[in-house]
Write the structure tokens for this entry.
Amino acid sequence: MNITRKTLSLYWHANMQYPGLFVGASLCWLGGMILQKLVMALIAAHTLNQLIMAYNHHTTDYWSIFWPYLIGFAAAALAGQILIDLGLYILSKLETRVRRLSEVLDEL
């Protein structure tokens, strides 16, 4: 077995001793990225679609149309950032509980 594979195997087994932290960090980060990269883009696209529809119907009061989208966009951004930060916090907790690099290198 090469050294890279052996090192990754040691870290994988060490991380799997704390499955709650590993899954929690992964899901929080994934959820935050989905909110920031996909949901916010979908809200922006739907907002532009509403702008086009309002323009075609000769609407002049745009704020009443866009308030829910602005609030949704801000809420998605905030929730996404909170999830990403929480995932990084959980990851730091996981890293402090996993074996130190010197211990891994001693086993190699």
Summary: The mean pLDDT is 87. Residues 10 and 103 are 10 Å apart (CA to CA).
